[in-house]
């Protein structure tokens, strides 16, 4: 009893410090203008004050004022001038993912919030790994042009090591790749099935009519750089005996095929790509029954994007586009 009395007299009742800290955090959150986060999201996406203002339906001075308040909120410059635009600071990049995810989660729960492709000016960001970008990008853009005049797409062709966080924090809406993302919080939809084949020059001096695995290992190989995270070739060259046969590592399968057509090297590529270039490059195409030679193309997205009506529309558009492949 004595201890408690003393603590009361000193204003240190057990648990008061934690309650005071929690109350301080609550008050700090109440003072923060959370509407500023939508401005931050727009400026991060476009990295241009004028275009961000147009997207938000605000005046340029209003957006500039909001950015100044954001700087005070986060005690950081957030954006610095770079040429005609602005460049996010390291702190802004750090904040972007969590803020974008939080805004998306709130948006998903708002009742009556719709998406109309005929009037929307929304920009979607997706990544289509090489060489699938060559096959699908023209079809996706043609489909988008038919379905919406205002919606735009930002398409990358490189899958980064942080692809999961890019999708989780809505820096990207979708990824299309030959590999799925096997995580509990991700969805994967198979778009189509293809076949892995072996290509060589029709003028190759040694290859027999029927190529077997021993013959495969006796030849020199051209591959997409094996150290790249999204290397198409790596799954087939992850053993010392196959890596020992690699003589050329290119940036893409296009450069690999060009090299194969002019040398005695061989390479593994998707059948659709081999057929598309066989006549132009004078290529021979062979099956590879010693491999699991089925290739599956996947559309992947994070579960937090599943309630977004715009994302649902874009998902359907991507699926329809892939069905034309």
Name the helicity range.
Answer: 40-55%
Structural class designation: alpha/beta
Q: How large a portion of the residues is in β-strands, by DSSP E? A: 15-25%
Give average pLDDT, whole number. Answer: 87
The CATH top-level class label of the largest domain? Alpha Beta
Task: Assign the CATH architecture of the largest domain.
Answer: 3-Layer(aba) Sandwich
The fold-level CATH name of the largest domain is D-Maltodextrin-Binding Protein, domain 2
Query: Number of helical segments?
Result: 13
How many distinct domains? 3
Calculate the terminal CA-CA distance, rounded to whole Å. 79 Å
Poorly predicted runs = 1-13
Largest sheet: 7 strands, mixed
Shape: elongated
SSE run = HHHHHEEHEHEHEEHEHEHEHEEH
**CATH superfamily placement of the largest domain:** Periplasmic binding protein-like II
Pfam families: HTH_1, LysR_substrate
Organism: Rouxiella aceris
Region (Disordered): 1-26
GO molecular function, one term: DNA-binding transcription factor activity
């Amino acid at each position: 009893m004595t201890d408690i009395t003393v603590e009361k007299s000193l204003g240190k009742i057990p648990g008061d410090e934690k309650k005071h800290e929690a109350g301080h955090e609550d008050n700090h959150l109440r003072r923060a203008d959370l509407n500023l986060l939508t401005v931050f999201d727009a400026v991060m996406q476009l990295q241009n004050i004028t275009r961000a203002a147009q997207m938000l339906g605000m005046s340029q001075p209003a957006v500039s004022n909001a950015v100044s308040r954001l700087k005070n909120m986060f005690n950081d410059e957030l954006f610095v001038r770079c040429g005609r635009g602005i460049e996010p600071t390291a702190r802004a990049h750090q904040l972007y993912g969590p803020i974008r995810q939080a805004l998306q989660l709130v948006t998903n729960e708002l009742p009556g919030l719709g998406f109309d492709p005929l009037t929307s000016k929304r920009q979607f960001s997706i990544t289509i790994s090489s060489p699938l970008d060559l096959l699908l990008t023209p079809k996706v853009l043609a489909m988008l042009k038919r379905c919406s005049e205002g919606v735009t797409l930002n398409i990358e062709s490189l899958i980064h090591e942080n692809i999961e966080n890019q999708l989780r924090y809505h820096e990207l809406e979708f990824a299309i790749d030959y590999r799925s993302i096997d995580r509990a919080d991700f969805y994967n939809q198979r778009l189509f099935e293809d076949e892995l084949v072996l290509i060589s020059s029709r003028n190759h001096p040694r290859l027999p009519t029927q190529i077997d695995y021993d013959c495969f290992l006796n030849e020199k190989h051209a591959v997409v750089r094996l150290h790249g995270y999204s290397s198409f070739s790596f799954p087939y060259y992850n053993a010392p005996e196959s890596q020992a046969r690699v003589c050329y590592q290119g940036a893409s399968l296009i450069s690999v095929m060009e090299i194969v057509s002019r040398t005695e090297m061989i390479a593994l590529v998707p059948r659709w790509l081999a057929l598309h270039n066989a006549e132009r490059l004078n290529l021979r195409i062979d099956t590879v029954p010693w491999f699991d030679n089925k290739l599956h193309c996947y559309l992947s997205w994070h579960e937090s994007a599943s309630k977004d009506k715009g994302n649902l529309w874009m998902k359907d558009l991507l699926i329809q586009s892939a069905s034309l492949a």
